[in-house]
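Extended Data, panel c. Modelled sequence:
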Amino acid sequence: MPSTLGNAALGLTQIILWGGSFFLTAVIVGPVVEATGWPQGLVIGSLSLAILISGLLSPWIGTQIRRFGGRPVLVAGTLVMALGLVLMAMAGNLALFLAAWAVMGLGMAGALYDPLFAAIGQAYGASARSAMTQIAIASGFAITLCWPASTFLVAHIGWRGTCLAYAALAAFVVAPIFALALPAGRAAVPARVAMPKPGVKAPRLPGEGILAMTFTTAAILMAAVAVELLLLLQSHGIPTASAVALSALIGPSQVGARVLELAFGQRAHPIHLLLISAGSVALGLILLVLAPSLAWLAILLYGAGNGMRTVVRGTLPLALYGQAEYAAVIGRLARPPLLGQAATPLACGYAMEWFGIDVLAGILVAVALLNLGLSLAVARQVARQGR
């Protein structure tokens, strides 16, 4: 089992990798467009391309972790991400820039939260839960740290230099951490559990479809709020500086929820945390739409629910399906949320253009309530299985 220090190091890997992928786009879009003249929509859409490829590859990545263990997969994914960042820095035209993001998508499929949790869950079974929470706590301030750091780097070494800096961190910091902190080979599983033969596609397990829908609606909400929160706050008359300050509450509230889960929630079944997460996100978005004067409370509730969701995404499938199937299930469960995330920014843009920000906010509340309903359905299924 990784030590607390090892889990903190694994959390650092996610700060670096998310900072050099998901959170990099928002910082470099302006400088890239200004320096190259490429269309802004395509520069922003490059991230959607990477997320799409990552989602398509996730089930295959899960089977590789199940067969070979997490260490080789995550090290390889990290090095592919580093290669993508180098190609991005060298891109002399838009086609090469998009190709670099496609390579990034290949690496993201094998190096971010889902494959890391799959590797830990397969290696350590039920005892992996606290490790997942500690990793999520350590990486919880990724956006809070990476946006200012990336902005500083862009100002001093340009957007291409920033890509190279993240590539160096991935290759020389993240890959060695994965090599040292993750166990070699695949874990032994109980003798009564037969591992599927290589090349044989494992069947979907009971409840997997509705659980995937639950995770997908939650992922869509996360992506939509990341894109539209500032605009939604400003539409209620909140000044830009205040809106940015309020948005910054998401990071601390995410980490706070994960700390509470580690301190008090380890004995609770993850299904209870799923319900709390879905309810907190729904209540936060309802407050944001109906009571903008309580925006601070709404964002704290949303952030806490979203922070807990990251942990539940790793711990609930482990509790439901067990150690032997875990890596493959995580791979299959990762695809629909990633595809939803890839489509969300474009869908939000069109919805806001056609219907306005208020209608979009209502749609987000409806999706949050749907997510809560799906979570209740999962809980009922867990209760029936328990009986």
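The longest helix spans residues 295-355. This feature is highlighted in the accompanying rendering.
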